[in-house]
Each structure stands twice: as C-alpha cells, then as structure tokens.
Amino acid sequence: MTPRITDEERVLSELTGNTLLVYWYLLKKGQGSSGVREVQRALSFSSPSSACYQLEKLRELGLVSKDRSGDYQVSRVLKAGVISAFIFLRGYAFPKHLFYASATSIMILLFLTLFIHALSLVLMVALSPGIVAAIIFWYETLKVWRHKPSRR
Amino acid sequence: MRTTKTLKTCLCAFLAAFLLLAPSFSMSSVNSPYAQSDENSNLLVPDTLITGIVKEVHLNYENKFFSGTYRLTALIIVQITEIIERPGDFYHGEKPMGVGDFVGVSYNYSGAPECRVSDMVEVHGFWVAPLDMPASRTIRVDDYAVGSYVKTVAEGDESGEEGESDSSTIDTQSEYSSGSISHGPGVNLWYTWINASGTQVVFFTYYSEMYNSPIQTFLGQHYQTVNETEIFIGNTLLLMEAYSDANGNGVPESDLRTGTGEIKYFFVVNSSVGFTPTPVRKDVIENTPHYVWSIKYEWVDGFLLYPQGRLINGVETNLAARVNITHLGFTYEYYVQGNISYIKTGFNVSRIVDFEPNAPDVSLDGLGLSLLYGAVMLTTKPYAVIVNGEPYNSKVAEAPTTSTDRAEVIIGDAKLYEFIFEENYTLYRDSNAETYVSKSAASPIESIPPNAANYLSPYWLVGSLLRILSEDVFPNMSASLPNLNLEYANSSFVYRVCYPTWESWGIEHDPTYVAYLVELTAPPIGPPIETIAAVAVAGLFALTLALVDLRKTRRILKIKPLTMRFR
C-alpha cells in the first residue's frame, strides 16, 4: 500500500533546484513583491523567461501570488524541511539555533564575569548543563547554515 | 618556706647545669669570665686564633642581672680543628688545649652571632683563664677585646646535628596551634600560632626545663591592609619601672641630662621557677571565633635596680633590692569582627614578696609601676605613628613623654593599627580589689636610660624565629624581614603603660591592640544559592531544548533537502 502523500509533501517534492532558490529569495524579501527582472538579476538567471518559469511554477504550487502589476509575493510560508530551521528577518535568513546559542552563551559569560573571583566546583557543576547546551546550539547553528539553499 | 624551696630549686638547677656543661665548656656563673661587667672596661688584645666546628649556640641568661651590670648574649661551644695562635696558658686543667677539644666562646654583642650549629668558624679573641676556675675558661669576643670576632668560614650541614635550635618549626598551615620549639640546650620556645581571616598572629616565649625560665615574650601580627599593603607589627615588654609621679600626670619622666627623673628603680624580672602555658583554644562566641591562650610564670625572682650606679658600703652598684613575686601572667584573646581584628591582652602581676633591700632607704611606698613596651613595625609602604593627632617617632621625639590614651599607625590616610591603652586596672591590696585609671605615654628612645639596655630583652632571638616564618608566611616581606632590626633603639614606637598607684601590690590590666584589615582578606563572596540553583535549572532547560532540537534538526537534515526523501 502506497503511503498517502499530503499536499505539503507534494509541494515540497516539487520545490527543488532553481524553484527553491526563487522561493528562498522571496521568503527573505518578506512582505515586499518582486518582479521577474528583479528575480532574474538577483539570482543571475540567464534570461527573464527562466525567472518567469520558476515564479509561475511557485504560483501553481500555491506558494506565491501575482498582483495586477505582474509582481510576485509569498502567499504561503512552508513550515517544513530546512526552511523550518530558519527565521527570515529584514532580508536575511538566520538559523533558529543562533538565538538559542547566543542567549545561552551570554548567560554563561555574564555569570562568569560577575563571579569569576568566587569560582568553585559547585559553580562549575551548576554551569555545566548551560555550557553543554551552548556547545550543542552553536554546532547545530553551523550545521544548519551549511544546509542553506544556495547556487552551487 | 617558699623561699627555701625556691633556693633549693635554684641550687639543683645550678648543680645540674654545672655537671652537664662543665666537661665541655665553662659554666655561666657569677664569677664566670664571660659574665663580663662594665667595670671591666680595660681594652684587651686578642691572643687566641682558632678554627673549629660550632657544636652549640645558646643563651646564658643565668645570673644575667646578678649585679645589675652584666650583659650576656651567647655562649658558643666550638670543637677545635686548628690552633693558629695561642697564649701560654691555653690549658684546660693540667692539659694543653688541642685539636678535638671543646672550647667556650663568650660572645658579648647585642646582635645575634651569625654562626650556626655545625658551621666551621674562625675565632679570634682573648683567652680568659682564671687559675681557680678551669671550667670558666673561654675565648672572649666582644668590644673590649679589640678586633675580636667569630667568623663563619664554611656553613655546615644542618641536618642531623644535635642541639639545633630550629630542629622543629611551626606548622604555618594550621589554623591555630601551640607548641614548643627547641632553641638550644635547655632552652625552648613556646609558641602560639593563629592563621585566620587572612591574618597571622604569632606569640613566643622562652622557657627552660633545665634552668629557671627567663621572662621574655613577643607578640606579633601580620596581615594585609588597604592598597595591598603588607604589615607586621610586634610588641614586647622591655622593662618595668617603679616611678614617683611627682608632677601628677600619671606617667614617668626621666631627665637624663641631670641624671634625675621620676624613675626610681628598674624592676627587672629575671627568671621563674615555674612556667605554665595554656595552649590556644578556639571559642565561638556569637558566631565569631575567639582564640584564647595564656602563660603564667610562677615564683619569679627579680631585682630593683637604680637607674644610675651608686656607692653602697663602698661598692658601686645598681642593685637596690632583690625581690620575688609569686606570679606574672599574660593572657591573650584574638578575634576578628568585620575587617577589624582585636588582640586583648591581659597583664597580671602579683604583689612583691621577699623584699631584700641592698640599702636602708629602698622603698616602694607611693611609687607607681610603668611597663615599657617596644613596638617593631615592618610595612611594604612608608608608615607613620600618630599620637594625639600628630606624627610621633620615638627615635627623633624631643618631648620626654607624650601622654595619650591611644596611638595609631597609618599609611597615607588609612589607619592600619591602633594601640588602645587607657582603661581601668585593678589593684589587689591584700584581699581588696581597687580600681584605678591607667595612664599611658608615647616615649622617646632617649627617655630610656642608656644602661637600661643591659636589662632589655635580646630581641635577636625572636628575630631568628621570624626569619624562619618569613619563608612561609610573609612572602612579600621575606626580602626585607631578615633585616628587621628588633633592637629597642631601632623601634619607632616605644610606649609606657602606667599604673600610678602600685606600691608593690598586685595588678591586673587589659590593654587592646586593634588591626584594620583589608576587606579583600575576607573570603570572596560567591553568588547566593538561589542564583546558583537558577543557573543550574536554566542550563538544564537549555540542554533539554538543545537535545530535542538536535533530534529534530537531524531528522530535517537527513531528508534530501525539501523532497521528504531520505538520503
């Protein structure tokens, strides 16, 4: 018996290569819309028709919409796959783990700065879970960053 | 009855010492040639030059004050290895002295001899050989034997030699301890050591199981204070004085220009039949540790000496009277509150008994008692002593005495140490206790009559112990501590604690020393337990989140990007 494929899975399976790159570009752009030529220049496509093809494909998948002026913008954000591991903010994509890693590291450094003169075994034991968590978060941040969609 | 017992004890000690020591070196008796008197002031020409190995170095405090003019410091026993120059009577008994024989060297300087047991030394001095006292033959080395010396030629191996003065030392790692350290044949140091709250307190006193114990105490404190300044302050009782308070200010003045003054007698305590130390103990009072210890000298013999010699029965002497006191006690209590440490000292002297005047007019009626103390200070930055708001230096002070109720030691504007004197004292007249106000005064060195130096404590013995301690306890001061001069003449602060009403009765008094410590000496303050717990919980939460996310991310990244197909 073939497992039932959900709509989201079907969309994800179609979202590969240049199509994914265009969608990634539009996600970073946020609420703003982009024209065909803008996408072609930003992603260095050889011709506007290539960009138009990808944008139309995304529109058929229901991920972007087209306004009256012919520009495209994201209409649906997929919360699956590597996309779910990123946060898009003001034109940039950040791994979610970056925030966890930063918060944990700041907490540890602040504590050490304040109580460095009274450092003891008890304090180090209390700090050790946070230190391990920070190391894991930074490792995951790096790993996710390396899996970010990009032109190869 | 008691006097007879004391005399018997003294006699036994004397005989025992003689039998033990006579075969190898001369005995310290009153007729001993190394018990040199000031009257014997003719200059001598050294006639003996030998080399040898030091076998013993020890004090001759027996009969130290017998006539009030003797001044002994050390007797060095040397085993001869070579005789370079000798006088005709260089004999021991009927036999000429030769290589391998032991010879006593009477060392009569105010400073410590540099040689130690097992050192190879060269001795150049004057051979003293009274025909009737073969046991007293010694090589005399002092200012009267011009050009005499004891010079260390080669340092010996200190390990495994008997009679070493520093064969044991203080465990400076311990929080507090009391114990004994051998300090030569028959002489021991009893000590109390406290290492708490970033300060170190050390107390020494001499005692002997072979002889009557000498009366000599030293109390020192070391700590760090503001601006990382390291400080060592020591106090010792130099001398007691009986004075007539003619001007009614409560403290003694001495006019050395005219040879007169209010000091009538030096009250010199010589030795005690019994010595009872009470080791330090720790009492916790209201969460504050108090370290308490004490010593008690029992049945102490002493002398009343005139400040200037006088003719009595045709003989010039300083001796005014021989006296005994039944006890002399010192108690100490040390504790730290906040960043201030306190040493409360207790002084307890019995009434004078067995008063044997040497002249008909000797009397203590109407006289007060003054305790002359010397303070030695060593700091890593320049300090000043403040008395009545003004800088005071005993070495340069011109005023004979400056009455005060306290004195401070400062560096810059920071107060490091305080002497608090003026409190009530108790006088025991028969069985009645009477309370009086004590007086105190900062005193210049020149207010101490020059010949008083003959009776003052030989500080250098304590100095040698401080040098031992310096390696462990005073790391920042260890370079300068060996040069610490503990002679009273070098003290920048000499002071007197005075009891205007005395008349030979018993006295109890508790002056206090206060040291101001730096707050850094307190243990570092760590975060409260709640903060530590919160950090631990937050860390555990973050770790759980990280582990959960780790699984989630792995699942995401194991899928071919955005295809939901596993790699």
Average residue pLDDT of chain A: 84
Strand content of chain A: 5-15%
Main beta sheet of chain A: strand number and arrangement? 2 strands, antiparallel
Number of domains of chain B: 3
Low-confidence stretches of chain A: none
CATH classification, class level of the largest domain in chain A: Mainly Alpha
- Helix vs. strand class of chain B: mainly beta
Strand order of the largest sheet of chain A: 1-2
Give a written overview of the molecule:
The complex is a heterodimer of chains A (152) and B (567). Chain A is mainly α. Chain A folds into two domains: 72 residues, Orthogonal Bundle (Arc Repressor Mutant, subunit A); 58 residues. Chain A has six helices and four strands; from the N terminus they run ααααββββαα. In chain A, α2 crosses α4 and α5 runs antiparallel to α6. Chain A is elongated and about 65 Å long. The mean pLDDT of chain A is 84. Chain B has a 23-stranded antiparallel beta sheet that branches. A five-stranded mixed barrel of chain B has the order 1-2-5-7-6. Classes of the chains: A mainly alpha (152), B mainly beta (567). The interface between A and B is medium-sized, with 42 and 27 residues.
